[in-house]
Every structure is written in C-alpha cells, then in structure tokens.
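Researcher: Go.
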Amino acid sequence: MTAKSTVSVLGTGIMGAAMARNLLRAGHAVRAWNRTPDKAEPLAADGAYLAATPADAVRDADVVLTMLHDGPAALEVMRQAVPALRPGTAWVQSTTVGIDGVRELADFAGQHGLAFYDAPVLGTRDPAEAGQLVVLAAGPEQGRDAVTPVFEAVGSRTVWTGEDGGAGSATRLKLVANSWVLAATTATGEVLALSEGLGVDPQDFFGLIAGGPLDMGYLRAKAALVLEDRLSPASFAVTTAEKDARLIVEAGERHGVRLDVAAAGAERFRRAAALGHGDEDMAAAYYASFADPHGTA
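Model: Structure:
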C-alpha cells in the first residue's frame, strides 16, 4: 500500500475529529462517521467524506480507526461496519476500552479476518489538534507499513509494546499512564477546593512550590481552567475521565491491586457529572468538593 491511503474514522468527538483533520493534512483520504452527525459536519470543509453509516464509512478503506466512548460502543459500531470491510483491512482501535474490552475486540477482528492494532493514544485536545499525540501500539509486525503513516499523521511518536493487539500490552500501558493523569487532576481540584475552604489564595500555594520538585506545568494548566472559568470546551471530559478511572480500578482488582486514589477519583468525577459538569473538562471534578453545586473558585 502507498503511504497515502484511505482511512475511515469512526467517532469524531474531541479526539477523533482532531485525528481526522491531521490525516487530511497529511494527504490521506478520510471517510468519517459519527453517531451524532453534527459533530462530523465540520470535517467536510477540510475535505473529508461524511458517511451516513459505519458501513458506508469503511467501504474501500485501507485502515479503519475507531475513537469511540468505550468498548461496547466500538464493538457495536464495528458490527455495523464489518459487512462492508475487506478481509485483511487494518483496524486501529484507539478507544480506551480496558483489558477485557480489548480482548473482546481483538476476538471480533479475528473472526472477521481483520488485522487488529490496539492503539490507544496519550494526549488531550491540544496535542490531538497539533498532531502531537503519543500512540501506544500493539499489533502484527507484518502489516505495520499500513498503519505507520496513520500513526505518523496523528502523533509525534509511536511506542510499540508488542505484536499481539489482543494481549492488551498497549492498553495496559495506557491505563498506567492515565492513572497518573487522573490522580494529578483530582489532586489539583482538591487543592483548589481546600484553598477556598480555608480562605487561602491559590496563588500563595503556587508561589510556595514554584520551581521546586512539587511544581509542575500540568497542575498549573488544570488549575487555570478552574480559576479562569475555561472548562469548556473540554480537552478531556469529566464523563470520559470517570469511565477511564473505573477501567483502571477494575484492571487493578483483576490483578490483585487495590487502587484507592483511582476509586475515589472515579467517584469525584461521577459527582461532578451529577452536578451538571459532565461535558466540561475533567478539571471540573473540583466541583465535587462542594455540596453546593454553585461552588466557585
């Protein structure tokens, strides 16, 4: 296959739309589908073909990329798409689905003769739009020439973790990385909430840790979203963060590891969503610290 190919992008939310745009910029033909068509429509101006159904989207595709909410959603959409797929088509599965989920998707791929690549990505809206995601990939070495140009278009680097996508080595690494990201996000919200509750200016805290080992850009970036009321549009939504946190807790339990911080984080994300912040950036977990849903920084 040539370096420029036809890529079907199933799921054009925050991440999928950005990935589709970068594929177009790299010269690939993109056939896009989204359950809510309005979210896919802006891609038409960039040159994407907008498909009415998953089957229409994958017709004549060299690579299918799924970026959907969770494992069940990915499986449902691929069941609709598979009648139009050629055997041997590469399926790049970038949804964070958990260890059991990736095994189920790989089994489905095997039943239908698809080349399965477990390829979750590390990064949120800004790196996705800039084509600077880190792709964590596992899949057969034979056939990587088909998916490598896709990874190069959406990411700054690819970390290969194995040759069996169904073994979940890429997903396992993604869950470990996300456990740190979500813990840092939760801690950021709590430090802001505690500052407010105790009457401490958050800037005094930032000044205290400035330049030391406790300081980090991620803390300041997420805190700024809350303090400056810039939680929309989300870089990574509260509801998605809750889903990932629960996958992390589940993976730990399956392997004899108790993850108290991740479990508490999942509950904070749930409460924030219940207070009406589900579609906002995950930094909005800050609001879970207050009984009053109108608590502000």
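Model: Strands lie at 6-10, 29-33, 49-50, 63-66, 90-93, 115-118, 121-122, 133-138, 155-162.
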